[in-house]
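Structure, all two chains, one model.
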Amino acid sequence: MSIKKTLLTTAVGFSLTAGAAAADGHTELTIAIVNNGHMINMQTVAEAYTEETGVQLNWVSLEEGVLREQVTSDTATGGGQYDIINIGMQEAPIWGAAGWIEPLELSDDYDVGDLLPAMANGLSADGTLYAAPFYGESSMVMYRKDLTDAAGVTIADNDSWDNVMAAAAAMHDPDNGVYGACLRGKPGWGDNMAFVTTMVNSFGGAWFDADMRPALDTEEWNAAINFYVELLGTYGPPGSEGNSFNEILALYNEGKCGLWIDATIAASFLEVDGVAYAQSPNAGNPVGANWLWAWAMAVPTGSPNSEAAHAFIEWATSKEYIQAVGNHPDFGWGSVPTGTRASTYEIAEFQAAAPFAAAEMAAIESAAPAATDLKPYVGVQFAAIPEFPEVGTAVAQEIAAALSGAKTVEEALEASQAAADAIMSEAGYY
Amino acid sequence: MAIVATTSRFSKIAWPTLAWVVALIFFFPIFYMVLTSFKTDADAVKPEFLFSFTPTLENYANMTENYDYWRFATNSVITSVLATLFALAVGVPCAYAMAFNPSRATKDVLMWMLSTKMLPAAAVLYPMTFLTKNVFGVFDTHFLVILVLCLINLPIVIWMLFTYFKDIPKDIIEAGKMDGLTTWGEVKEILIPLAWGGIVSTALLTFIFCWNEAYWTVRLTTIDAATLSKLIEGNRAPEGLFFGRLSAVSTAAVGPIIVLGWFCQKQLVSGLTFGAVK
């Protein structure tokens, strides 16, 4: 009897500790974020928000994949675990249309019109904004001007892939530890396929045809993947099939990469001198040659503090927040979250601190996520459908196998088509 | 004689050398992690600062000031200690019953318990989230984490204790019974003193398993009951090289368990080799 009593008392005691903290009358917001530089900085800058409003902020920092998994399971079980969640452009329109996140209620002072149109559209469903962009990015070429000058080559905006290959060949000097081209090769729908998809787009290919049947067995995919394997296999660093953003960033900062085509946010992490920028290359089709992504903030349906959550999002994605980061003694104008508001790029201090600003703005403005005759889905480097992560991951494995030489390009694409067809067919698209 | 002497001399040098080499290979990642934790994020990825750099404590300061390390550490201690105690409280009587009063089903029950470890955790993620959050309302509580850690380690605890108890002659237990001891008396006066080493080894291993558990502690907590596993998880970054601060968090998370293992290595080795030829 006494053992039973002890166990029961312990259980009840521990259960009550969870509710005790919030029972003292303060509003508390639980915010799930991905762990990257801008989000980490926000935790410090937001101390002023707490001082001003009295709203306590509990930060739950998670790795991207775990964040998606946990937010999905929370939402699917009615929500309530988080008041604000970090979501990407792939999820926002799907979750908004499904009613998993609330439409944003923003005051007139917020100036929605200042949001970059590409970002606002990508985070909306049926014209309703469901998530506010915290920072956004596109992709562009970042290259070593000293090496191109020494080799007597140039890389122009929207250059042809052939010229990019020629520039990579001219800079390639593995004996001295310099590789012509560093590109993503690590399998994952957000890793190698982010880059590969933009390349395929520029060759005129797309993930699905007008009936949403996979279109991976087309000439465009074949030409693009053959070019990718040749470019990275010949002029890339060894072991490229294991490289994604972080790995290449480390290589680039060690001076081992001639050119790198990746997220524009990489520019703010580069520590080598003489970096130059160019808009993404293409093989005749500029639409979809550079990607578009945003980490945004949304309020999950079921949040017990919905009103306070909307107010916080309005502050954290406002012009005032940009000013707060730029004027913060710990950060400065080189650390402001970019790619969200047109007004950010007009700030003189930011322009001076970020030499990549103009190239980034041009890349974001030219990104084209809307559905077209060529691709019947929303999204540049992904398709905004629930099945895409599964399709993208399956194809990513095959492309990595082709890159490593374990399969031919033809074998990899044949297997990719079969895998994608099985997933889409099972999902009931046709 | 000369050949024997040469072989012996060779063995005396070669085997310890090999052991040191293997040990250093295994230890190097931990050494490198500790070393990196004293570098800035910028220095951590530069090969020229591999061993020669200006050490800094900024990652540790950042961890305690901005990441609330002590809250996570306290939760890890509370949940691991209590889960280990509860697992032993259930495991000792269970293993006692199976070792000294076996039935025809004992072997099958033991196998069934072990088979529960083969269930992929992801398969029950949704029901676990739904039940703990929507039905029982215990999501993100110490109680839930302790219960889950206790249950997932119970099969190992019972198996280990069962193996130790089987080595104790049944006659001693029966002699106690002849002297008028109750069942609780047998456990308290005979079993626990005789199997003390095995129980301590089991407790240590269970504590380590609880401390290192990451799947459920990350997914069934938010703030209040989050353990050090969640702190490490949150410091992995998809865009950005924050290896200095990640190393500091990892060092601070595994540090206590390494120190504990260092002091208790004799019992740990005994626990890890249970069931081996004695």
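Chain B touches chain A at residues 42, 45-47, 66-67, 82, 125-126, 129-130, 133-134, 137-143, 146, 218-219, 222-226, 230, 233-242 (CB under 8 Å).
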